[in-house]
Design a protein that fits this description.
By secondary structure, this protein is α+β, with helices and mostly antiparallel strands. Helix content is 32%, strand content 26%. It has 13 helices and 18 strands. The chain has a 7-stranded mixed beta sheet, with helices on both faces. β1, α1 and β2 form a beta-alpha-beta unit.
């Protein structure tokens, strides 16, 4: 039976959201095909494993997790990927995994940091590559890439915290020229953390100060007139991708808040499906399918696939769209490269239930890994065997040529 190491947590303001998503997923992975190995990264960067991590009750007091789990490191021994004891004279093997399944959110983990580590180990893993993950986490870079690919994005401007603090008047003038109302965001966070709507200069100054608490890089976006917010998820990779149904956001707020997404408080109503622990899984405040005319539907499906490809994504990504209902134009707002609940509820109405989606993600990771192993990644010959140190770099270049 294939061992799937589900990795979650990390030093991020979305730490608890990652736990929620991961525990839900672990309880829906097909136990007849896969053995789930939980791997929790604490806020102080320590790694733990143990079946107790599959229960939400374990996280009521994060300081006690070390008592019911084992602290480990993930490494490679011979041809195996092992979780070995971190402390003690003998680094015994606690468990092994065959494929990694990162279910992390936010800066420091979802932004390519974890993907890069897994690539260095050489282990197959679910989700975007280090490049795709890092682009997908940065709201500025992703807009630059999408705009260069002809994908419509809203008008925006961005700056670093130090630039704003050095020349506040300049940036306030630029924001005024962009036009109120605007939405202010930390550029590399998710789950609506640190986001504020500003309708005037006083509000924008407060919003920027709030965003600066979370990130050095800030983005300010022009709010769309006649706004409707919808989402579409994509699963697969550049060769084979499938769009979900489109969901319309339901909220009483100016934008979908953290509470809307994870506490089931969208539109003034609690919602969600029962999970296997008997609790609620928030469906993120969406009406699925969204009521849209054919032209807008086609725009959203087209731009979802184009953005998935140009941002170098794989696994499952949920794209947030902003629609000007009067102009009948859709803008890609941002991707969520490891979305909350892995966006399973967007696929369920199509007949793809959560266990099937998880199965596809794991199989897709293994397929991509096997394909990548067919490519030339290093040379058998050691070019340093003929290196003459006395001749310096030019001598080495001549030998290699």
């Amino acid at each position: 039976m294939l061992k799937v190491g589900v990795i979650f947590g990390g030093e991020t303001v979305e730490h608890e959201v990652s736990i929620i998503t991961a525990v839900q997923a672990m309880n829906y992975i097909d136990s007849s095909k896969y053995q789930v190995i939980p791997i929790y990264i604490s806020k102080d960067h320590n790694w733990y494993t143990g079946q107790a991590l599959r229960s939400m009750s374990t996280y009521k007091d994060l300081s006690t997790i070390g008592y019911v789990t084992k602290e480990v490191t993930l490494t490679k021994r011979d041809n195996s990927f092992v979780l070995q004891k971190k402390r003690g004279l003998f680094k015994g093997i606690v468990d092994t995994i065959d494929v990694a399944f990162p279910i992390v959110h936010g800066k420091g983990v979802e932004d390519g940091s974890l993907a890069g580590y897994l690539e260095t180990l050489g282990i197959p893993y679910v989700g975007p590559s280090m490049l795709g993950a890092s682009i997908g986490q940065d709201k500025v870079v992703q807009k630059q890439v999408m705009a260069a690919s002809g994908i419509p994005v809203v008008d925006y401007l961005w700056f670093y915290d130090s630039e704003y603090q050095t020349d506040e008047d300049k940036y306030l003038k630029d924001i005024k020229a962009l036009g109120y109302p605007v939405i202010v965001k930390p550029a590399r966070l998710g789950s609506s953390v640190g986001i504020e709507v500003a309708k005037n200069e006083k509000e924008v100054k407060t919003a920027i100060e709030e965003a600066i608490k979370y990130d050095q890089k800030i983005i300010v976006e022009k709010m769309i007139d006649n706004l409707k917010e919808v989402d579409c998820a994509v699963v697969g990779n550049y060769e084979d991708m499938e769009c979900s149904l489109i969901g319309e956001m339901l909220t009483d707020n100016d934008f979908l808040t953290f509470e809307d997404k994870y506490l089931g408080k969208s539109g003034g109503k609690k919602g969600g499906a029962k999970n296997q622990e008997g609790g609620k899984i928030s469906t993120g405040g969406f009406k699925i399918p969204a009521k849209l005319d054919k032209d807008l539907e086609e725009q959203i499906y087209k731009y979802s696939k184009e953005a998935f490809r140009c941002l170098n994504l794989s696994g499952v990504t949920r794209f947030d769209f902003l629609i000007d209902t009067k102009a009948k134009k859709a803008y890609v707002n941002e991707p969520n490269t490891i979305p909350g609940c892995l966006a399973f509820f967007f696929f369920t109405p199509k007949g793809k239930k959560y266990p099937k989606l998880l199965d596809e993600l794991i199989k897709g990771a293994i397929k991509e890994y096997k394909q990548s192993k067919k490519k030339v990644t290093s040379f058998e010959s050691n070019v340093l065997s003929t290196f003459d140190g006395t001749k310096g770099a030019k001598g080495a270049k001549g030998k290699m040529m």
